[in-house]
Design goal:
The complex is a heterodimer of chains A (190) and B (281). With 190 residues, chain A is mainly beta. In chain A, 6% of the residues lie in helices and 29% in strands. Chain A folds into two domains: 64 residues, no CATH class; 111 residues, no CATH class. The longest helix of chain A has 7 residues. The radius of gyration of chain A is 23 Å and the shape is elongated. The two termini of chain A are 43 Å apart. Chain B starts with a strand and ends in an 8-residue tail after the last helix. Chain B has 281 residues and is α/β, with parallel strands linked by helices. Classes of the chains: A mainly beta (190), B alpha/beta (281).
Chain lengths: 190, 281
């Protein structure tokens, strides 16, 4: 969110906008010179590195302003994943959600998958988990071809545990853990 | 397959890399990207300028060559920052895949994708509002005032996202790169007084590409759909605007520390040598 264009503006506000702790030590001149973080040139309002440095120069500055000339026209991270059906049967669900350490990284309609088929999808899995990750897969009802004897595991960098599905009422849910890294959401349902 | 990277110092040096939260984030992403590409394909090349070559060499990444062809861009305005990519594309003499520094191929691309004449991240059709807003004002500006536009410029159908650009058709690549340089040669000075030049980069990099590929009827593969929902590949990672986020910068730095400790040491040495503050989590 951009810094306010009206009202009070503090050094702490600038720290927060730059992604730093509100109470971190800050020099206005150093901030304007990009010493703490590169000034986002895509922000329509931004401070000048010329001296004297003044707090009013920061009004309207948006440190995460999207680029219209940054080589990419989209928003946040893309991390593509895949789900494989290795159950021996055709499976389906209305849609699926995936959580990585509590953060929803995918929420998408799941097509019917024949045995051996896969479905690729885009996720927002950005803060990659290197160790001790917990991943929850919900397949929402009505589901076809899935029972509590089915399980899933992940292989996006490390072999996770197996997580068996159980009913939550609205979904079949399973949870796996991974002591090693998972770079992408690569799921196998057995 | 040859994987190509490029880095053009557009004036701020390593101390303030454009479009990144901080230097160590950019270096961490570079390490992760290059090492994953090298793992899958065994051949990586860097195209840069002489000044940047000095610090890139210090990272010790397994580039088969670090070319300095971007020295030839000195006469151009640094606002046209994507020219570094265009120059890197233009000097290729065999099929190649250019990968941006904020893209990581955690998995190799499928043969189905790389068999296309060309392949990119995604189409950006202008019937989708976000893309329309990004491109159309500048397309119309160039339409009114620009010269040396590629045939089809007035079609206004779509652009592409070139987070990656895979090319098996070098004739297309030459036409495309020549078209961009011709436009820049004859228009850069004029537009500099009208609009920040960096705003035009997506037009001549990503819209020109789509227009020319359409006219030449190239087969084009993509990785994700324009709405960023469906995908054709797994393990494709692109930071996009998240390059400005501190928590993701920390995450990447931690990743390199854990997975590539020798490169973590090299990054720290380089930051110390350049007198750049190291941000610990």
């Amino acid at each position: 969110m951009a810094l306010s264009t009206t009202g009070s503006l503090s050094m702490g506000d600038i720290n927060v906008e730059l992604g730093r702790a509100r109470t971190a030590s800050i020099s206005l001149d150093a901030a304007e010179n990009g010493s703490y973080a590169t000034i986002n040139q895509n922000s329509s309002s931004k401070p000048s590195s010329s001296n004297p440095a003044t707090i009013s120069e920061w009004r309207g500055y948006n440190h995460t302003a999207a680029s219209s000339g940054g080589g990419s026209s989209g928003g946040g991270t893309v991390n593509t994943g895949v789900i494989w059906n290795d159950t021996g049967r055709t499976i389906s669900a209305t849609y699926m959600t995936i959580k990585a350490n509590g953060t929803t990284v995918a929420n998408i309609t799941l097509p019917t998958l024949a045995n051996g088929a896969s479905f690729n999808f885009s996720t927002t899995y950005t803060n990659l988990i290197f160790s001790n990750g917990t991943f929850i897969l919900d397949l929402y009802t009505p589901t076809v071809g899935l029972t509590s004897s089915n399980y899933f595991y992940m292989t996006g960098g490390y072999l996770s545990t197996n997580g068996y599905f159980s009913s939550t009422g609205s979904s079949l849910r399973a949870t796996v853990t991974s002591s090693g890294p998972q770079y992408s959401i690569i799921i196998h349902i057995k | 397959m040859k994987i190509v990277y490029s880095y053009w110092d557009t004036g701020n040096g390593l101390k303030k890399p454009g479009n990144w939260f901080n230097t160590q984030f950019m270096l961490s992403s570079m390490v992760m990207s290059v090492l994953n590409s090298y793992k899958h394909y065994g051949r990586v090349e860097m195209v840069t300028d002489s000044a940047s070559k000095v610090w890139i060499e210090k990272l010790g990444l397994p580039f088969e060559s670090i070319r300095t062809d971007l020295d030839e861009l000195q006469k151009y305005d640094k606002g046209s920052w994507a020219l570094g990519k265009i120059k890197a594309y233009s000097i290729q003499e065999e099929p190649f895949l250019h990968v941006d520094l904020d893209v990581i191929l955690f998995e190799p691309l499928s043969q189905k994708l790389v068999n296309n004449d060309l392949y990119v991240q995604n189409f950006e059709p202008f019937h989708i509002d976000a893309y329309h807003k990004t491109y159309m004002p500048y397309i119309e500006l160039i339409e009114d005032l620009g010269t040396d536009l590629p045939i089809g410029f007035h079609d206004k159908k779509q652009a592409v996202n070139l987070g990656i650009y895979g090319c098996n058709n070098l004739e297309f690549n030459k036409l495309y790169c020549d078209s961009v340089f011709r436009f820049i040669e004859n228009n850069e000075k004029k537009f500099k007084s009208i609009v920040p030049l960096h705003k035009l980069c997506v037009i001549w990099e990503q819209y020109f590409w789509a227009v020319i590929a359409d006219k030449l009827k190239m087969s084009i593969g993509t990785i994700i759909d324009p709405h960023y929902k469906l995908a054709s590949e797994k393990g494709y990672f692109h930071l996009l605007i998240d390059k400005y986020k501190k928590d993701i910068a920390d995450n990447f730095y931690e990743h390199v520390k854990t997975i590539y400790p020798e490169y973590y040491q090299l990054i720290n040495k380089l930051l110390e040598f350049e007198k750049i503050e190291i941000h610990e989590k």
